Amino acid sequence: MAMTSDPGAGVRPVGAGPAGAVRRGRRKRSQLTALLLASDAVCVLTVVLLLGRGEPTVVVVSTSTLAVHALAGLYRPRMDLSVLDDLPLLAGAGVAAVGVAAIAEGALGLGDVTPWALWAALVQTLLLVGARAVVYAVRIRYRVAGRVAMRTLVVGCGGLGAQLVELLRSGEHGLAPVGFVDDDPRLPAGVRPLPVLGGIADLERLVREHRVDIVVIAHSNVPEMVVVDVLRSCQGLAVEIFTVPRFWQVTNTHRLVQSVRGIPLVQLRRPAFRAVTWPLKRVLDVTASAAGLVLVLPVLVLCALLVRHEVAAGPLFRQERVGLDGRTFALLKLRTMPPDAASDVRWSGGDGAGPVGGWLRRLSLDELPQLWNVLRGEMSLVGPRPERPHFVERFTLDHDDYLWRHRVPVGVTGWAQVNGLRGDTSISERARFDNHYVENWSLWLDVKILVRTVGQVLTAAGR
């Protein structure tokens, strides 16, 4: 997703955001993951049929192993395929599955974990190791033969980039480099192993034109923030992004770090809207906002009557705000100041609030009507707070990261707000916290923010 802001022209999206990611095509399903799942399922089924002997604990041990493998990341696609690297996790998964069976024994009365069940678990682990070794051997052979290859762009045409290209050309890692991307290539044209297809600003177009699956960020002369902005613009595409860490020569490796013959590659986290759990965010929004509107209806009615008495105007206040992908919507609030004090271009109207309005703002009760915005899909319970178009344009010009907040739905509360950034506080800090939320979203983070918001409301820690 990319957006642009033009003074006088409003805020408009360029390209598409989270919704557009689906239209542009879903991420290719990993053949390796499917093969590993299939081989594990065959092993588990074999043990249940041949060694089950009607013992429920054998079935529990066998079937729970698949779930333990998934939680341990044993189905995660990788460049390096080594059953020896997986062996500790495979053995640990077998022990964990026996533990699950023991818990099921106590909770459900399925019977004792017998010596035969332990023997079946050992046989199953050996089968799983052997099957995985076969899958890896076949997969590597297909890679080297060029029958399995992910089209790859290397950002940075220098010594490290050229080294990566030469290493990837062996095929054993399953990546097929197609070209470099660089504004200022350090390698002369005559010694480049692949052509330079364009500059960093062309990355999104090149990914589409060359049907690229993988982007590897090596070191280049392009300023870091320029690269960050371009990578964010590619987040709606079905492409995985890896980066060579700085000081990679002394970087420790582990299972979460890929490796190309000694060169570590760190996979950037997939955008929130491409996470498997992302649709659950909308489920949480709908159920919680609907329930919330029912529960707080008496409070809303009381607040509306108090507002009507104080400002002698309609209690509901509508104001244009900028939401997901730069789209505008009418945000609902309880009126906390007289109608003639409201402004779309004045930063703070807090001085005009009367006693009731000030009380509503301190307790954040003026935000309750936004539950209707959430139910309508214009907002989420948790996300970056929406701002007026005038200030979005202004802050976008003053703060490089500001507009990237709009990659996810705006929220009634957010990560910046529960960290004390409310009212007249640093816009740069807000943008940093909001983008941190976007890059690190999880359902648990949403729950944590909601819990902290309730705590702040109860302690009157509002504006």
TrEMBL record:
<comment type="similarity">
    <text>Belongs to the bacterial sugar transferase family.</text>
</comment>
<keyword id="KW-0472">Membrane</keyword>
<keyword id="KW-0812">Transmembrane</keyword>
<feature type="transmembrane region" description="Helical">
    <location>
        <begin position="87"/>
        <end position="110"/>
    </location>
</feature>
<dbReference type="InterPro" id="IPR017475">
    <property type="entry name" value="EPS_sugar_tfrase"/>
</dbReference>
<keyword id="KW-1133">Transmembrane helix</keyword>
<dbReference type="InterPro" id="IPR003362">
    <property type="entry name" value="Bact_transf"/>
</dbReference>
<protein>
    <submittedName>
        <fullName>Exopolysaccharide biosynthesis polyprenyl glycosylphosphotransferase</fullName>
    </submittedName>
</protein>
<dbReference type="InterPro" id="IPR036291">
    <property type="entry name" value="NAD(P)-bd_dom_sf"/>
</dbReference>
<dbReference type="Pfam" id="PF02397">
    <property type="entry name" value="Bac_transf"/>
</dbReference>
<feature type="compositionally biased region" description="Low complexity">
    <location>
        <begin position="7"/>
        <end position="22"/>
    </location>
</feature>
<dbReference type="Pfam" id="PF13727">
    <property type="entry name" value="CoA_binding_3"/>
</dbReference>
<keyword id="KW-0808">Transferase</keyword>
<feature type="transmembrane region" description="Helical">
    <location>
        <begin position="57"/>
        <end position="75"/>
    </location>
</feature>
<feature type="transmembrane region" description="Helical">
    <location>
        <begin position="283"/>
        <end position="307"/>
    </location>
</feature>
<feature type="region of interest" description="Disordered">
    <location>
        <begin position="1"/>
        <end position="25"/>
    </location>
</feature>
<feature type="domain" description="Bacterial sugar transferase">
    <location>
        <begin position="281"/>
        <end position="458"/>
    </location>
</feature>
<feature type="transmembrane region" description="Helical">
    <location>
        <begin position="116"/>
        <end position="138"/>
    </location>
</feature>
<feature type="transmembrane region" description="Helical">
    <location>
        <begin position="32"/>
        <end position="51"/>
    </location>
</feature>
